[in-house]
Write a structure and sequence with these properties.
By secondary structure, this protein is an alpha+beta fold. The chain has helices at residues 3-17, 57-72, and strands at residues 22-26, 31-37, 43-45, 49-50.
């Protein structure tokens, strides 16, 4: 994965989360993990998201908005309940 693509994902995720610092790591083919870092150093790690390199910025933004909402409020947008999320891990309330 190119550093430019990771920077692009980080920029888009920062915009979605309204957070200046979001770290992005590649975890498998087209899977990325986003971790928001607050000013006090607190970290919120989101479940891996599948994003293809051909996706537009708008498509990525929409997907991340849905994924982040589901991670923060799993009952509002239920998905696979067997997948850990921030609420079930007690990291986001």
């Amino acid at each position: 994965m190119t550093p430019e693509f990771l920077e692009r994902l980080g920029r888009i995720a920062s915009d979605v989360l309204n957070n200046d610092r979001v770290e992005v790591t590649a975890e498998g083919e087209d899977y990325y993990v986003f971790e928001a870092v607050a000013e006090d150093g607190t970290r919120s790690r989101f479940p891996a998201a599948w994003i293809t390199r051909t996706a537009t910025d708008g498509q990525i933004k929409e997907k991340l908005a849905r994924d982040f909402l589901e991670a923060a409020h799993p009952d509002a947008a239920p998905g696979d309940l067997s997948v850990p999320n921030l609420e079930t891990e007690g990291k986001f309330r």
